[in-house]
Amino acid sequence: MQIRSFKLRVADRHVRVVPKTDAEGCPFSGPGVDLRGERAAEALAAAAPLFEALASFEPGVVIRSLSFDFERERLLATLDPTTPGADPRPRVVRIDGPPLRSLLPLAVALAGSLADLAKPVLAARSKADDVEETEPR
Q1: Which residues, in sequence order, are bridge partners of residue 67?
Q2: CA 70, CA 132: separation in Å to the nearest integer?
Q3: Is the model's pLDDT at 55 over the cut of 80?
Q4: How many structural domains comprise the chain?
Q5: Domain range spanning residue 89?
């Protein structure tokens, strides 16, 4: 399974994965996969290298959410204020072009972990769809 995009909602402990292909390599259609609870915790732990890389751009940064779109080659991050007296609203940072190249290998590695975490959720969804289709109406 290849990943088209993902969003890590750190503050909400929720991860959304949008596959590009399914487990058989066919184009994916359908809603993205939501990871919550233990799977979300595993996904956020796997994202630690990407979070650390962002902190190298701006030490002390507090990441509220982070999304990565492989087709657009763009990272968006929502950051919480880090200093007292700062504007209390979160700010959005967009990274693309040359600065993104240093983050791309980390995002690719994370996408592999996210695919592994999303596969059982998709399999369960597929089984539920199969049951609905075979039940008499």
Answers
A1: 7, 76
A2: 33
A3: yes
A4: 1
A5: 3-134
Structure token digits, residue 3: 């990943």
Q: What pTM was computed for the model?
A: 0.85
Report whether 18 contacts 114 (CB < 8 A).
no
Residue 90 confidence class, pLDDT cut points 50, 70, 90: confident
Q: Do residues 74 and 95 touch, judged by C-beta distance below 8 A? A: yes
Enter the tokens of residue 94.
């967009």
**Can you list the positions of beta strands (E) in 1-46?**
3-9, 14-19, 33-35
Q: How far is CA 75 from CA 16, 54, 81, in A?
A: 15, 11, 19
- The CA distance from 50 to 34, in Å, is 20
pLDDT of residue 123: 84
